[in-house]
Each structure stands twice: as C-alpha cells, then as structure tokens.
Design goal:
Number of strands: 6
Structural class: alpha+beta
Largest sheet: 3 strands, antiparallel
Order of helices and strands: HEHEEHEHHEEHHH
CATH class of the largest domain: Mainly Alpha
Oligomer: single chain
CATH topology of the largest domain: Arc Repressor Mutant, subunit A
Helix content: 40-55%
Length: 199
C-alpha cells in the first residue's frame, strides 16, 4: 500500500500562512504555487488576504487587504507591527542599498558585514558619547531586523548578513521615492536629539 501524498494546494496554502515562500528554499512548493496561483488567490481572498507573488525575486507572501478596520467585518489576520525610529531607519537604509545594487550591479544578493551596517546607521543617530552603548543598541536593532525576516545571518561567517529581497515589498518603490526627504528628516531629528515617528 502506497503512502498518502499531501495535496499540493494544501502545501502551498500552509507554507504561505507560515510566512514568506521563497523559490530558492522550496523549489517544489514554489512550482506548485505557480501552477495553482489562481486557486490560492481565491482561497486567501475569502480570508481578506492578498497573495503577492514576485516571480523575478522568487518570493510570495500574504498581505491584509486594504480596508478600514473600523468597518471591516473581518478581523485582521496579519498584524500591524509598529517599528521604532532606529529600526525603520535601518530598513530604509538597507532598502536603499538594495536599490543601489540593482541599479549598478548584476549581483542578486546583497551581503553586508555587521560593521558596515553599523556605519550605515551611525550617521543618522545622535552622538551618545558612549561608543559601546551605541554599538550595543545598534546590535539590538540589527537583531530586530533579523527577527522581522529582512536580514539573514550567513552560516559560518560571523557578522555577515544577507539583505533579503522581501524588503523591497515592505519598503516599496513609492516609499523609496521619498527616501532622500526621509533621510533628511532623520538627520534633522538626530541633530536635535529626538526620534521621528516610524514610517
């Protein structure tokens, strides 16, 4: 008697409900997603979710449909996560680095050392006078970005991180057009010693 096999649609739906589906990490499930995309979209639409598939970057994920929470009959399945100023700043700077890579290089992966990430953010944070404390805080912010899934520590390479392309969906092109204005605002707040609201 042969072992039962899982329904390919069920595998796709479960993978997406658990988080981001990456072509590179799950080629068989990705192939099923490409084939079953219309059925998966219909299923998630019932739950008030949009299925976003970026074939160029090999990423698929779910996003709550735009709706007014006060009038929607459905509760939110995908929670909103408020971000602190330093974390939102770090995400903006990493997104800028991805855009720079795409514009100037044929490389698909962006790998940054911890020290490079710290230097990237340091310019926008006020002078604390305590270098060790500043680095500890920045390490905590980097760890938060890792937890959010936008940075992936590289195995066997201490203090090296890959910037995941999922960040392009989170910080989209429209937001990036205001990037310079946002950075100027961050600089002003850093000089004033306060923190602006997260985007």
């Amino acid at each position: 008697m042969s072992e039962p096999t899982a329904d390919p649609l069920a595998l796709v739906l479960i993978s997406l409900m658990k988080g981001v589906l990456e072509r590179e990490a799950s080629p068989a499930t990705w192939s099923n997603l490409v084939e079953l995309q219309p059925r998966a979209r219909d299923y998630f639409a019932i739950l008030g979710l949009d299925l976003l598939v970026n074939e160029a970057d090999g990423l698929a994920y779910l996003r709550q449909k735009d709706q007014d929470d006060s009038t929607s009959p459905l509760p939110r399945l995908v929670p909103r996560r408020p971000l602190s100023y330093p974390v939102s700043l770090l995400l903006a700077l990493l997104r800028g680095k991805l855009a720079e890579l795409d514009a100037t290089s044929g490389e698909t992966r962006l790998v940054l050392a911890r020290v490079d990430i710290i230097e990237l953010v340091r310019l926008f944070l006020g002078d604390t006078g305590n270098e060790a404390r500043l680095v500890d805080r920045l390490d905590a912010h980097i760890q938060k970005v890792v937890e959010l899934g936008f940075l992936k520590p590289l195995r066997g390479k201490d203090d090296q991180y890959e910037v995941r392309r999922l960040l392009k969906a989170f910080v989209d092109a429209e937001w990036l057009t205001d990037f310079d204005a946002r950075l100027a605002e961050y600089r002003r707040h850093a000089l004033a010693g306060d923190e602006p609201e997260a985007p």
